[in-house]
Request: fold
Amino acid sequence: MNTGVFCNRDDTVARGIAERIEQISPGACRIFDFNPDSSTIALHGDRIFWSGVDLSKLRTAWVSGLPYMDPVIPPIAEDVDWSLWRYDHLIAQQRWSAMESTLQELERRGVRLINPRRAALRRYLCAQHLLSLSRNGCAIPDLLVSNDMTQVEEFCRRHERVLWRPVTGRGAWQRFTERQRLHLVGPDKPPILLAEGQPADLLIAWVFDDEPLLCLGLERPAQREVDALGRKEDFGELARLETLETVTVLDGKSLESGLRRAAIATGWPWVQLTFTVTGGTLRVYEADPDPMFEWLPAVLKTWLIEACACKLLGHEPDLATRPAVGTRLERPALFLRRMLQIQFDMERSKYPQDGE
Reply:
């Protein structure tokens, strides 16, 4: 056992990587469950056990889904009798502390830790991390973190396009218009992160050990003309069709040097980059050290799992199995398109001036 995958029991991507490693090289990988009711920890001065397994032979630990929690915040609980003193969050705090100590000690003893907590901390401090990338030679958009109306208005006057997102965690970059300015900015509201928008679509790429594994163009959910989706006769009387996120596989060769430079600037071996390319300049809008890609269409998800498993084993994936450039796929959904109509109506309501 050279590789340990530490994840939650419902993390299908991390478990898929572990299973693929085992298929390629039986006995090379084992899954370690974060869920407290199915795992035990023993941390000695010279040995570490997780659910009775000696971790001394590990060379690499893939950590997935362990959030930044310092201090540990009491979780929102339902069906709890709050007339009694509650101490549940203290139990969670102790479990968190033990897991964190174990992982940090593994790293101190020479195990390569992918996605350590300090990486999750950088995602938690999104603006600070983007500024640190800039100091390390990576191009980023002009940024502002503020809830001050005067500062926000001045920022908007300087830029033709402005995007916004929450200042922490994962969140979509969205257009910042007059409606957003009036509803999101004020001394009684938390600061938001604003960025200069570029006249180009946001792209996403997954990079492992400074090697881009997959690069995609991303189209946001929208109602699209059926003429752009295929044969018009396939859609009957429909003129427009609701579609979820749609991705297109890009040829990342021209972007390799920029993506490699950005990945090196993060200091992380495994990262998802969100970026634009304008005038030959790659600008990073987000860097996620513990990316979630279970939402991808199956063929793309399978490729990333295959590529990550091979990289963890120390050899290159078979490029012949990589999805072809130009492959265009919509994010899968269990619902009929019309069942999602309310979400499309809510999205359109944010931007009434666009006439959408």
Remarks:
- The two ends are 55 Å apart (CA to CA).
